[in-house]
Target: Glycosyltransferase
Amino acid sequence: MELESNPVVVLHACLGVGHLIPMVELAKLFLRRGISVVIAVPTPPANTGDFFSSSGSAVATLAAANPSISFHHLPPPDYPSPDPDPFMQMLDVLRLTVPSLLAFIRSLPPVAALVLDLFCVETLDAAAETSVPAYLYYTSCAGDLAAFLHLPHYFATTEGNFKDIGKGLLHFPGVPPIPASDMPHTVLDRATRACAARIRHYARIPEARGVLINTFEWLEARAVRALREGACVPDRRTPQVYCIGPLIVNGEAAAKGERHACLSWLDAQPERSVVFLCFGSLGAVSAAQLKEIARGLEKSGHRFLWVVRSPPEDPTKFFLPRPEPDLDALLPEGFLERTRDRGLVLKMWAPQVEVLRHAATGVFMTHCGWNSVLEGTSAGIPMLCWPQYAEQRLNKVFVVDELKVGVVMEGYDEELVKAEEVEKKVSLVMESEEGEKLRERLALAKEKAAEALADNGSSLMAFSEFLKDLKLSE
Ligand code: UDP
Model:
């Protein structure tokens, strides 16, 4: 990789599609301002199969699709005894990668800033050693950040575990009441190592000079205000926050004429008539659940475009690569034939952003990964919220109770979401007055998202402010 002698910004990425995509979008923002940027990605050691197994191909795909962006592959660290817990394994690899990132920074022309994924927070040590200003890039919502920043204080001043509070409500600054059971599973039990590691990460966030958040002010005004006022971190300084989103893929592939067949199928459907179901890059529902969804869709009578993945063998290992689904074996007998005229099932992957922007799409059943929420909001599509892993339950609380751009799929926290619930919620959004109100709210949110990214919009202004802080702009 050739870098010019201009100052360069180094983005330290965590592996994982939902983290890499917004990192690439951030890199484009720098390039558009004429600022050199490089994305440094960790390389997992050969003995850490599990957690990272699908990430290498994600990096390769993104790099091939974005030739103007430099990727630097950091060498795999020595990790003789991988932790048996895959989550801890990921954190270990990122921490052990810090020395090679440090060497990389030293090899470059002046580095204007380091921008770190939250999982790479230990890289703050490399920034301190080199005196390079360090910023975090938070790729989920401001609401999550407000809650997470508050957790070290909360844990220091309370006892007990979220897992024992169940649906009891937590009251944190800047966010609506959160059922304790909707907190990420890694913080449900403070006796676990994962919980200790996460709290340590959250406690280190204030060491950053600023935090870029992939959101826009209008959408999360209350959480952003609480962050700015320092209400989330009562005893320390809160870094400056810059809401620079929504940074989402802009569907360039479609514009270049590489159109996915499902978009032609959508062309033939009436406006706002299709239910789009897609559960992120890892979608993790069981075989029984797939059948239940199919029954619900069939009963609803509505058109649908459904991305199906093979169920994970072990639901706690949803991140492992899985084979292509055998649709005939997984879906109810005769389902594909009976719904042939009004439904399309895709294996593994859909061009989500293009689908959401298509005029035929009417509702989005989503797992509430933050990229998906931003993509749905920016396209003005109401969401049916079915959280599955990571911080998605927390996102669901905000999407439904605060942003009011979606409704919840009841049963998401039980063994099955019933077919009747699928039918009921699809009908609610597609046919009822409540659905109409939701669409009006989404139309406004779509407008506000576009405004935020327009010249002089809040997000581009925030990015300019950030560049001024870096002395990369007047
Ligand atoms: N995505 C896609 N097609 C799919 C599944 C996912 O394009 O079939 C994209 C989606 O548009 C989003 C990203 O992958 O940009 C998933 O990120 P998100 O934060 O929603 O969820 P995660 O995969 O991290 O759980």
Notes: The first helix runs from residue 17 to 32.
